From TrEMBL:
The keyword S-adenosyl-L-methionine does not apply. PANTHER family: BLR0577 PROTEIN (PTHR40254:SF1). Pfam families: NAD_binding_9. Residues 5-173 form the FAD-dependent urate hydroxylase HpyO/Asp monooxygenase CreE-like FAD/NAD(P)-binding domain. It comes from Polaribacter porphyrae. InterPro entries: FAD/NAD-bd_sf (IPR036188), HpyO/CreE_NAD-binding (IPR038732), L-asp_N-monooxygenase_NS-form (IPR052189). This is FAD-dependent urate hydroxylase HpyO/Asp monooxygenase CreE-like FAD/NAD(P)-binding domain-containing protein.
Amino acid sequence: MMKLAIVGFGPRGLHALENLFLELSKIKTSNKIDISLFETHKELGSGKVWDTQQADLNLVNISERGLQDLQGRNEINYQQFVIPNFPSYTDWCFENDRADKKDVDTFPPRNKIGNYLKERCKSILKVLEKENCVQTYNTLITDINQKKEKLILKDIDKNQYEFDEVLLTIGHQTTEIPKDIKKYQENALNGNFICLPNVYPIQKIIDFEAENKNIAIRGFGLAMIDAVRALTIGNGGKFVYKKPTNFESEFKTSNKIPNKIIPYSLDGLPVIPKPLSEKIDNQFAVSKEQLKAFENRIREVANNKENVRDNSFLIEEYAKITANIFLNIYYRREEDDLTEEDIKNVIFKWLTNQEFKHKLIQKTNIPTEKLIYNYVQMACGKKKISLDFCAGQVIRHCQPTLYKSFSHAAISEEIIADVIQFDEKMKRYSYGPPLESMQQLLALHKANILDFSVVDNPNIQFTKNGWIFEKDNHEIRVDCIIDSVLSSPELLKVNTPIIKNLLRNDVIQPIHSKLGIHTNTNGTIIFDDKKTNASISVLGRLAKGSVIGVDAILECFGPRVNDWAKGLVSRI
């Protein structure tokens, strides 16, 4: 009997279990498999990110329409029992009377997806537990050691477990606290001030006594928006829609919200809202022919059939597609003498260097609230689309193909890192929030609560009266700092026990100094000598570099999980 451990049982661990039994059902074998699931969170299948108990104000950044791609599970007949089918996310919404069909895209709260995952998990575990195929442990695994041909897992209570194979699907891991946050935490000890090193779980921010305080938020992205909503909606404030069709709103305050909320980041640039509706988004849709050509070029590079030195091959492809799509949108609005080649050259220069300026590209050296307003109007279809906005949406449409075609690329680690760095940089556009979120930021600014005066890399000094944020001769005093910058999956900076011990024992190594664990296509890990340890596999965020595109919920149900299952069954 093979003994398998799945360490981390959120969405990716759930889908790994589903795929394993799907692949097992295709072969005729009397061999038994004994599976142990290790998860620290009380809810199986959803994990911390999709916790069903979190506040409704935590929204996802993928629309209900986008979630149509979250496919269900077909019925699985394995040996003497049946694992029932489970509906797709969209069908599940209809079955539960929670579908919301509107002319504008809607973005569900994370706990709604959590409920879907939780129910999907229960439906398979109910069968597998009854058949004695699976047991679950609510504990933290801290170490994995190899003893002859067995893997010995140790948990936080020193209990030991023995397995033939281990799959790590442990998702986001904490890393070293940034130096500036460490310094602010030390500052806070010297007065009645607070520095919170992370946003999640969001309830701690909702429970925080924010009344009459000035609260700074490090970071200007999606987690910052969650923190802002926790400090406002979570403290009794309300957004009243002036125009429900585009979420334009006014903020009605309460006596519990902060005096000021002050976001700041290294460049002070906001995230870009997604288009309001399917109709508007369809302007940026990439044709099947364009996607196929894009995929072919990416695969040529990934398979080392084309010699490249950096990420410019990817930028060229994005520039070519963007120019074609932009020209159609642009000429519907006004005539100009720019050719498609001209536009392609402009977007290539901007994608290479986002300080490049052109009349077609949105100026960023304007007040932040005006910049957000301009992008909001573009997302509503009320303002002429800028070339950078168009490029961001085109990249969003191309990303699934990039992630599928470029993962496990047979080229140098430096080029892989270069591609990932570019993809991360463009997520300000492609992974943008719902339009509603940005309208809320504008409403809070109009209400003199959200303060953008020091958003762009301010100077920060600590005094006996708190932190003083200064930018361009403007100063504002701060009582509390919240860090909303999520750590990147740099393996060498991860500080959780299991990863530190695996590194110390030379069981794993990064594919690049700034990336994650080096793995094969089937998830098994690779060593310095290029040999594979088939006993340990890694899926998800910690394999970033070997795999790209690891953060989205749809990637948890992507093809890499099935590749692992096929590999394991072949070894069985």
